[in-house]
Amino acid sequence: MSDWLLIAGDLTPLGGMDRANHALAMYLAERGDTRVHIVAHRAWPDLQRHPAVRVTPVRRPFRSHLAGAPLLAAAAWRRSRRVRPDHVLANGGNADTRDVTWVHYLHAAHVPQVRGIGRRVQTRLAHAYYLRRERKALQRARLVLCNSERTARDVREYLGVDPARTRVVYYGSDPAEFSLVSDDERAAAKRELGWSDGRPVALFAGALGDRRKGFDRLLDAWQFLCRDPAWDADLAVAGHGAELARWGRRVVDMKIERRVKFLGFRPDISRVIGACDVMVHPARYEAYGLGVHEAICRGLPAIVSAHAGIAELYPPTLADLLIADVEDSHEIADRLHRWRWDVGSAAARIRPLSNRLRARTWRDMGADIEQAVTA
């Protein structure tokens, strides 16, 4: 019987790095010969109930990630001293374990952009704190797991980590939840959401707390497209954050409020994806892009930043779906325009990548991580 200690902010099936953390914990717990110790702010009920899992919950004062970070690190140190686990795996700078660090997002590679003096000051202080912890943890880690080649390059370039200590392990997915959607299923999903069957829908999915996901540039592109009477697509926005209300007001000012649907946070993101026809993700920084990955699994063409981690999996046949300059709203509009007037081709050309991503499960990811850690 071996003991693993996992240290992360959240382990939930709700998306992003939280979904990957949850999947790894479940993979280890279900092996039958492993005890999984979790130190986290939030662990999903299925993990808390599992007989092979022991959860140490850590409060997040005032729902603040920054306020909770030192508490998480301290709890992880205490748990490690008590359990003496065989393997310790922490997300990024959450803990300096000198064992394994799993990088989902590299603070050294991106400085958040926010509005308002108070938020800017708070964001800069938080970024400096996270960066300091991240640098210390990664430079002393025995092994640095990266979710893409892009992340591995960033780890080496920004923090000087020896390439010999890095391993790339791509995420997996749930092929049942994110199955290929048929035309009939898409039409039914549109009706369930109260959308018109005849109108194509582009999907943006991501946090709206800062400008990292590039929603501001997408909205500029959407306004440009809507000036054309022939443009018949609507934009669905799945996500929440501090700037959500501002964007709601902005679309009114732009006079495109009838062409943009704000959905808020959606735990049923698979169903929302199934109702859409294309995803647009012009992120300024994206270590990987699990939301894009899952949309592709459902068969959606995904227009994405050429610098996002997932873009390295795109074959040359999908080059027209890659955005070279995410600051250029006209390029984003051009990519959408090309997709709209050749919808069938884009859907057909994404199919091989969809099949490939869907074939890699979360268990496959877990097995790859276990092999890398125990080698």
Secondary-structure blueprint:
Elements: E1 2-11, H1 16-29, E2 34-43, H2 45-49, E3 53-57, H3 65-83, E4 87-91, E5 100-103, H4 117-140, E6 143-146, H5 149-159, E7 166-168, H6 183-192, E8 201-205, H7 215-226, E9 234-238, H8 244-253, E10 260-264, H9 269-274, E11 278-281, H10 290-297, E12 302-305, E13 322-323, H11 329-340, H12 343-359, H13 362-374
Parallel strand pairs: 1-2, 1-4, 2-3, 4-5, 5-6, 6-7, 8-9, 8-11, 9-10, 11-12, 12-13
Helix pairs in contact: 1-13, 7-11, 10-12
Sum this structure up briefly.
The chain is of the alpha/beta class.
CATH class of the largest domain: Alpha Beta
Q: Per DSSP, what share of the residues sits in E-state strands of 2 or more residues?
A: 15-25%
Number of separate strands: 13
Helix content: 40-55%
Distance between the termini: 17 Å
Question: What's the CATH topology name of the largest domain?
Answer: Rossmann fold
Give the C-alpha Rg. 21 Å
How is the main sheet built? 7 strands, parallel
| CATH homologous superfamily title of the largest domain | Glycogen Phosphorylase B
SS field, number of helical segments: 13
Main sheet: which strands, in order across?
A: 3-2-1-4-5-6-7
**Count of the domains:** 2
Report the mean per-residue pLDDT as an integer. 96
Low-confidence stretches: none
Order of helices and strands: EHEHEHEEHEHEHEHEHEHEHEEHHH
Tell me the overall shape.
globular
Name of the CATH architecture of the largest domain? 3-Layer(aba) Sandwich
Broad structural category: alpha/beta
